[in-house]
Each structure stands twice: as C-alpha cells, then as structure tokens.
Predict the 3D structure of the following.
Amino acid sequence: MSMALGLIEAIGLTAAVTVADSAAKAADIEIIGMENTRGSGRIVVKLQGDVGAVKAAVEAAARSGNEVGAVCACQIIPRPAESIRGVFCKDESVSYEQKDKMDDEKDEDEKITCNLCMDPLCTRKRGEPHVNCIHYNDEKINSNESLKGESHE
C-alpha cells in the first residue's frame, strides 16, 4: 500500500478546523498537523494515508471548507520522496500554552525573564509589575515606560 501526502490550504482557523474534521471523517487518513503559513491567515492542514483515502479526504475537505470559508489550494502527492516527507511530516503545530511550557523548561541561566531590563539576573518575570524589576529606579527603565504608550500627565 503506497502512502500519500495531502496538503489543504485554508483561510482562517475555522475553515482549517472544518477541513481537518471533514478529511478525518471522509476516509481512513491520519491528520499530521496544521501549520500557520505566516501570512493572510492561511493555515495548511497536512494529512497522510493511502493514495485513494487521501484523495477522497482532500476532495471532501475542500467541499466543506469552501462552505465555511475559503480553501486556497489542495495538493495530493502520491509516494512523496523521503526528503519531502521529512520536511512536511513534522508536526510544527504548537499551541501558545505548549510554547510557554517549553520556555519554562529551558535552562534558567540562558533565559532572560525581565523584558524591561533584559538582565538575566533580574527576578522579574514578563507580565509582572515593573516595580519588581531590580533596575526599576534606573532612568533607562523609567524612560522606556513612557515609550510603551502609558500616559503620564
């Protein structure tokens, strides 16, 4: 049984989720992931499976995606080369919560936690009050506050 790679590009998250749902329900395929293409709200849904199953899933997904939003492009690649499979079959879909968790697991010595002073020794974490910064009384930090849109009357 030869495997195929299916790519469906949709505009908007709602259309992309609808596309993935329809594809999974239409045939026996595996959803590899969804990837933001970094522009115009386009999201690529990646799937794999038997060539016939991928073809049926992509056709059904394109129909349902066009009902909700817009499907820009669909592509089925039967028997993709291993180098292509290695690039596209990586699941790069990571939620913001997962990114925060991965950031928290980084070595604390390498991680800068304070986005005001950028000093690795500062114990203030992003989102905490500015007064928690060890450099809060420095002129540099106080002058940057006015640049961030805070009004001082």
Notes: The mean pLDDT is 78. The first helix runs from residue 13 to 26.
